[in-house]
Structure formats: structure tokens, C-alpha cells
Amino acid sequence: MIKPNFAKGDGLIPVIAQDADTKEVLMLAYMNEQAWEATVQTGKATYWSRSRNSLWLKGETSGHVQLVKDIFIDCDDDTILLMVSQIGEAACHTGYRSCFYRKLKDGDCVVVGQKIFNPQEVYK
């Protein structure tokens, strides 16, 4: 089986999560080898949290799980693209559907995404 080259990124490589149906880019996170193996085995997106320095099953607290439909690895074996079914409609911990909910327009940052939930209610 093909496997990412975690050595290139000192043990961590970037992962893009994209909605399998709409093709919307939902988020960018990181995986180490342990997160990779958990994702492949369970079919649920599991990342490495750099801030907590631990494995992070996406949706473990919020319920907004990412079910993996397809996994792509780039030509250099150092970036992963997960095609996911986003359960709970929101991928971003700030409550938006996508982490990319802001857009630079005419020098200003404009919110273009839809807020799905209130993070203060979800992450108590």
C-alpha cells in the first residue's frame, strides 16, 4: 500500500479535507503516522493536533465527524487530500462550514462563509 513520507515534514505532513460532494475545501490540518493509520483503519479523519500535541479525531467533541470517502497522496508523497462526507455540516471549530470562510477583497477581510453553530455552546 502507498504510504506518505512523514520523514519529509519531520513527522508531520499537511492534509487537505475536501467535501466529496460539493468539492468545497473544508480545512487544512496535519497528520503524523499514527493519525494516518487511525484514519485508514477507521474511515474517520484523524489528525495530529499541534496545539495539544496529541491525536485528534475530528468531531470527537463537536460531533462534526469527517467520514473518509477517498484518500489521495500527492506526487511527492508529502501531502494528503481527504475527500470526506462532513457530518454535522461544520468543519471549522469557529462554527463555520469551512475554515476558509474569510476572503481578502479590496484589501479588507470579508466573511463569506456561513456560521453553522455557536462554538461556545459546543465546546464548553
What does the model show?
By secondary structure, the chain is mainly beta. It has one domain: Phosphoribosyl-AMP cyclohydrolase (Ubiquitin-like (UB roll), Roll). Helix content is 11%, strand content 36%. A four-stranded mixed beta sheet has the order 2-1-6-5. Strands 3-4 form a two-stranded antiparallel sheet. The chain is globular, with a radius of gyration of 15 Å. The relative contact order is 0.19.
**CATH structural fold name:** Ubiquitin-like (UB roll)
Number of strands: 8
Q: Write the CATH homologous superfamily.
A: Phosphoribosyl-AMP cyclohydrolase
CATH architecture level-2 label:
Roll
* Major sheet characteristics: 4 strands, mixed
Q: What's the CATH C level?
A: Alpha Beta
- The gross shape turns out to be globular
Number of helices: 2
Number of domains: 1
Helix/strand-derived category reads mainly beta
Beta fraction:
35-45%
What oligomeric state do these chains adopt?
single chain
As a percent range, the share of helical residues equals 10-25%
In the predicted model, the low-confidence regions spanning at least 5 consecutive residues are none
